[in-house]
UniProtKB/TrEMBL annotation:
<feature type="domain" description="Peptidase M16 C-terminal">
    <location>
        <begin position="210"/>
        <end position="385"/>
    </location>
</feature>
<dbReference type="InterPro" id="IPR007863">
    <property type="entry name" value="Peptidase_M16_C"/>
</dbReference>
<dbReference type="InterPro" id="IPR050361">
    <property type="entry name" value="MPP/UQCRC_Complex"/>
</dbReference>
<dbReference type="InterPro" id="IPR011765">
    <property type="entry name" value="Pept_M16_N"/>
</dbReference>
<keyword id="KW-0732">Signal</keyword>
<dbReference type="Pfam" id="PF05193">
    <property type="entry name" value="Peptidase_M16_C"/>
</dbReference>
<protein>
    <recommendedName>
        <fullName>Peptidase M16</fullName>
    </recommendedName>
</protein>
<feature type="domain" description="Peptidase M16 N-terminal">
    <location>
        <begin position="67"/>
        <end position="201"/>
    </location>
</feature>
<feature type="signal peptide">
    <location>
        <begin position="1"/>
        <end position="24"/>
    </location>
</feature>
<dbReference type="Pfam" id="PF00675">
    <property type="entry name" value="Peptidase_M16"/>
</dbReference>
<dbReference type="InterPro" id="IPR011249">
    <property type="entry name" value="Metalloenz_LuxS/M16"/>
</dbReference>
Length: 472
């Protein structure tokens, strides 16, 4: 389940700022203040595009500023492509890419990065394996060489694999004791059922299966230039960037059959009632939501704005009702996550046991209000400013812009989406928001997942149906 919440902190900070503006607006302002100036045109970077003879797509964004270059390599085939018996094995594979290659060990890779002022990380999400790296622009050739070496020639040394397995097993034990993680895992199954998007977490079988040979085989099946994108952003000439891309990645050849695309995820699902027992818990961790649509769907932007009004900002309906008015939860919120093959909407609310049932009643009321209560002019304007503000602030950061472009490609969106996103969000109307409410936020269609103590909350749950114990 790709949550895409890397910038949640930024969203909260900006939401708090907007909340302060909203609070200040209750005080009468001087009558002689000048009107707001017209919105300025949104700056859109020029994205040079080329496809290498081997099929690798390359996007380059020359950019003035700090003498730095950021690189992203995205290869289709993330956890959704992993075998059901060994879910999320690609996460372990990705994490070991920089732990040794045919010509370097993990120490020499770390030293090479340090010498060029570099940073490197690799991961696997639902739809892709991602490498993100950066360095001083004067060392762009060395950076591209290092990324190519780790991406194309990883050796998966036995000692590094053993260490990664031990660390993964410890992390799994920690995760399994975390009620938030337990709730999200159960919600993934409620939203996606048997679809691979429900299997994005490692388990003991995956960790046990992670041998050097298995990881090498998985890598070779996934890494193909015709299913990959290279993004280069920073203080670098486009022609020079394309030259470096050809030098380092031009010899990359595809072999064997390409993986099939992930089947479309369900857009609707019969609502479920799941409980993860946590004896002695003093609070309930609630997830309330359903499957939705992928990022390439026409509803993507209207649904993003609608979710912002519902629970995506500090002045949202969920926050104002459940936190400010009722005092049930310190940080209730909702999100819409969109992937390549599907998506989901979900509210996250952690409350004390005594108000679990009351919170579910409030959520039902708030969700239904998205269809029955049109967004006010203030709500709509605030949501648009929050959506646009976060987007613009985020993509001023060079590494974030690089990641955004890579995510677009993975999600099936064109690079031009970068320049149209805010403008399209600003076109969303109150009628469209209400339509999203009818389509995605009806309370009767939402699954309810709770991690908590059944003895303490069972009586409060009875009005919402029979809850089944979730067993992964």
């Amino acid at each position: 389940m790709k949550t895409k919440t890397t910038f949640k902190t930024l969203a909260v900070a900006l939401g708090l700022a907007l909340a302060g503006v909203a609070q200040a607006s209750t005080t009468a302002l001087p009558k002689d203040l000048p009107a707001y100036g017209p919105d300025k045109p949104l700056p859109v970077p020029q994205i040079a595009q080329r496809t290498l003879p081997n099929g690798l797509t390359v996007w380059v964004v020359p950019r003035d500023g700090l003498p730095k270059v950021d690189v992203a390599l995205a290869v289709l085939g993330g956890t959704a492509a992993d075998d059901a018996a060994t879910p999320a094995l690609s996460q372990l594979m990705a994490g070991l890419l920089n732990e040794g290659t045919a010509s370097r060990n993990s120490r020499s890779i770390a030293e090479a990065l340090q010498a060029i002022g570099g940073d490197y990380r690799a991961s696997a999400d639902d739809d892709a394996v991602n490498i993100r790296a950066s360095a001083l622009s004067s060392h762009a050739p060395q950076l591209l060489e290092l990324v190519a070496d780790t991406a194309l020639h990883p050796s998966f040394p036995a000692n590094e694999v053993t260490l990664a397995r031990a660390n993964a097993l410890q992390s799994l034990k920690v995760q399994e004791s975390d009620p938030d993680w337990q709730a999200q895992r159960a919600f993934g199954h409620a939203a996606y059922g048997e679809h691979p998007y429900a299997r994005d977490s490692l388990n003991e079988a995956s960790i046990a299966a992670a041998t050097p040979e298995r990881l090498k085989s998985l890598h070779d099946a996934r890494f193909r230039p015709d299913r990959a994108l290279l993004v280069i952003v920073g203080r670098i000439d486009a022609d020079e960037a394309f030259k470096l891309a050809q030098q380092q990645f031009g010899g990359w050849k595809a072999s064997g059959e390409a993986l099939a695309d992930t089947a479309p995820a369900p857009r609707t699902a019969a609502p479920q009632r799941l409980i993860v027992p946590r004896e002695g818990a003093v609070q309930s961790n609630i997830r309330y939501g359903r499957p939705a649509v992928p990022a390439s769907d026409a509803d993507y932007i209207p649904l993003t704005v609608a979710n912002t009004i519902l629970g995506g900002g500090f002045t949202s309906r969920i926050t104002q009702d459940i936190r400010e008015d009722k005092g049930y939860s310190y940080s209730p919120w909702s999100r819409y996550s969109a992937n390549r093959a599907g998506g989901s909407t979900v509210a996250t609310v952690d409350v004390r046991n005594e108000v679990t049932g009351a919170t579910l009643a409030e959520l039902a009321k708030l969700y239904d209000s998205m269809a029955s209560q049109p967004a006010s002019e203030q709500e709509l304007a605030g949501a648009k400013r929050l959506v646009g503000g976060i987007y613009l602030l985020r993509n001023q950061i060079q590494g974030s812009l690089t990641a955004t472009l890579a995510n677009y490609w993975v999600d099936g969106l064109p690079p031009t989406f970068l320049g149209s996103y805010v403008a399209e969000a600003n076109k969303v109307t109150a009628d469209q928001v209400q339509a999203m409410g009818r389509k995605y936020f009806a309370a009767k269609d939402q699954s309810i997942v709770i991690v908590g103590d059944p003895k303490a909350i069972d009586a409060q749950l009875k009005p919402y149906g029979e809850f089944t114990v979730f067993k992964p």
